[in-house]
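> forwarded from #structure-qc
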């Protein structure tokens, strides 16, 4: 049984595959946005340190932080077991995974390419939350 949970809070809306989204036309209604996410675990101090050291997030003593996000935030729906994976954009997946390990996390899947789509890596934070990395080229995902 996992002691950690990952919760993504979102109002009912539309999630679109990466690269297949466009901003709404002026005057169009914005679909319900993702407005908050929560990464839970048994030790907030170690989690705060991990996310501060790996991603440079400014985490307050009460655990609150603001992480930068792309707009619109892309997503996908999958017919897999009930797992939610949050992906963070980084310049270099391999270097980020090295930071993950150096700060108590584990590599789940080393850097790999989905030809014509994206470059990814998967990791678990120190409390077991499974998360992902997307290699970025500027503000867009790197497409191999």
């Amino acid at each position: 049984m996992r002691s950690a949970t990952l919760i993504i809070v979102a109002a009912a809306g539309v999630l679109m595959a990466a690269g297949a989204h466009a901003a709404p036309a002026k005057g169009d209604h914005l679909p319900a946005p993702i407005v908050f996410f929560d990464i839970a675990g048994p030790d907030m101090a170690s989690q705060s340190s991990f996310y501060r050291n790996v991603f440079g997030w400014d985490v307050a003593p009460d655990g609150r932080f603001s992480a930068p996000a792309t707009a619109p935030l892309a997503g996908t729906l999958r017919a897999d077991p009930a797992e939610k994976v949050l992906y963070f954009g980084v310049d270099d997946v391999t270097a980020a995974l090295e930071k993950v390990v150096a700060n108590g996390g584990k590599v789940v899947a080393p850097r790999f390419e989905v030809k014509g789509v994206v470059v990814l890596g998967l990791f678990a934070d120190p409390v077991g939350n499974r998360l992902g990395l997307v290699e970025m080229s500027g503000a867009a995902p790197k497409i191999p």
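QC bot note: Residues 5-141 form a domain with the 2,3-Dihydroxybiphenyl 1,2-Dioxygenase; domain 1 fold (CATH 3.10.180.10). Residues 1-22 have pLDDT under 50 and may be disordered.
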